[in-house]
Amino acid sequence: MTVDQISLTGSPGPAASTASTASTTPAARPRVSMTGRRHRAFYLFTAPWILGFLLLTVVPMAYALWLSFTTYDGISPHWRYVGLGNYSELFSDPQTWKSLGRTGLFAITSVPLSILAGLGLAVLVNRPIKARGLFRTLLYLPAVVPPVGAGLTFKALFDQNSGAANGALTLFGFDALGWLADPYARYVLLMSVLWAAGNVMIISLAGLQDVPRELHEAARIDGASAWRIFRSITVPLLSPVLLFQTVTGVIASVQTIMPLLLTPDGTTAGVTALPQSNYLYMMHVFSQYFALGRYGYASALLWVLFVLILIATGLIFRFTSGVVFYNVDPEAKK
C-alpha cells in the first residue's frame, strides 16, 4: 500500500469533517426581534404596578362588592346573604341622602374656590419678581403636609378654649366662637381645603409657562388689555389643566376625611359627634364601618359612591367638551 493510499484511507474527507462538527455544535437559539424585546421590557417594568393594582385595588373592590350583599360586621362569624337588601335600605335612608347633599354642596363650593385660589397664586408667582422661587416654595409647603397633621393643626388653631383664632378675637374685644361646632364648622373645613391650594398652584403654574409668549406679544401689539389677554388667550389654553383640576378636585372632595380630623375626639369613634354641617357622605360611611360595625351596609355605600363618581366624571367631560381647547386633537389617531 502506497503512502497516497494510506492518506486517503486513514484521514476523513472534508464532508465527514463538516458533518462531525455539525453534530457536536448545539442548535443556535432563535433571535428575539426588537419588538419582542420592547414588549418584554414593557411588561417587566409595569409588572410591579400591575400586581399592586390587582392586589390592592381589584381584589379589595371585589371583596367590598361581596360584602355589600351580606350582613357581615367584621368580627362575628355569623352573617347571612341579603342580596340587594343593603342597597334597598341605603336608598330609603334619609341620613344617606342628607349626607350626599352636603357632600355635593361641599364639592360645588370647595372645588371652584381651590381652583381660583391656585390659579391666582400661580399668576402672581409667574411674574418676574425677586425671590420668586422662595415664594413658590412657601406657598407649596402646606400641600406637602399630611392630612392628619393639617387636621390636628386646624383643630388646635380653632379650639374654642385655647385656639389662636379665639385668642385673636378676644384680643380685639370679640367673644370667643365655637369654630368646630355648627354653624362655623363648615367654614373651618373650607379653610382647610384652601390652605392646601399650593398643589393646584403648581399645576396651574406649569400650564401658564406652557402658554406661548408670542400670542401674548401679538395681543399687546393689537392693543389688548391684560385682562382681555388673560380671558381670551391664557384661560382657553389652560382649559385642559382646569378640566384636570376639576375632575381630580371633585373626586378628592367627595372622599375627604378632614371633618373626622376636626372632631374633638379626633378618632374614628368620634364620627358620631360630628357637627351636622360636616357630616358628609364619607363620614356616614365611617360611622357605619367603625361606630356601628355594619361592614356590609358601609360597603354598599362605597359602591354607590364609586358609581356616582363615574357618573359625575362622565358628565364633566360631556359638558366641557365644547369649551376645552387642545393644541393637539386628543382623539386623533397616531
Structural features, described:
This protein is mostly helical and 334 residues long. The chain contains 15 helices and no strands. Helix 3 crosses helix 15, helix 10 crosses helix 12 and helix 14 runs antiparallel to helix 15. The longest helix has 34 residues. The radius of gyration is 32 Å and the shape is globular. The N and C termini lie far apart (79 Å). 22% of the residues are buried.
The gist of it:
By secondary structure, the protein is mostly helical.
Give the secondary structure arrangement, pairings included:
Blueprint: H1 3-10, H2 14-24, H3 34-67, H4 85-92, H5 94-125, H6 132-144, H7 147-157, H8 164-171, H9 185-195, H10 198-209, H11 213-221, H12 226-254, H13 258-261, H14 281-291, H15 295-319
